[in-house]
Every structure is written in structure tokens, then in C-alpha cells.
Amino acid sequence: MGNLIFKCPRTGMNVQHWLEEPKPGDPACAYETVVCKACTRLHFINRDTRKLLGERE
Ligand SMILES: [Zn+2]
Questions:
Q1: CB neighbourhood size of 24 (10 A)
Q2: Model pTM greater than 0.85?
């Protein structure tokens, strides 16, 4: 894990987010919930692909 930069789909701004290491025993969740610093809403980011949920390829 580590530093992740994603593009906020609402504002188009690049937002930096620190992706936490999943703790042992945590339910395996592919998506990280991120409170966006640009639009203050929640986005979901896939831990494996580091892409936003719903983001176009
Ligand atoms: Zn956003």
C-alpha cells in the first residue's frame, strides 16, 4: 500500500490519499472508502487496480 493519487470525478482535481495496509483479520475488501479532499464526498477505490469505482478505462 502507500501513497495514492486519484482524479476526483466530480471536480477533476488530483487528490492524494494514503492507502492503509489492511490489518490481518480484516474482511477482504477490494474497495477502499476514501473521503475526498476535493469534493468532501466518498469515493471507492479498488485496492488492486487503484482505480476509482465506476471510472472508465
Ligand atoms: Zn471527489
A1: 5
A2: no
Count of structural domains, the chain? 1
Backbone angles phi, psi at 4, to 5 degrees: -130, 135
Distance of CA 23 to the CA centre of its chain: 17
Q: What does DSSP assign to residue 26?
A: S
Q: Within a domain: residue 51?
A: no
- Which residue in this structure is represented by grid cell 476535493? 38
Say whether pLDDT at 50 is over 90: no
Please tell me the distance between residue 31's alpha carbon and the centre of ligand 1 in angstroms: 15
How far, in Å, from the CA of 10 to the mean position of ligand 1?
5
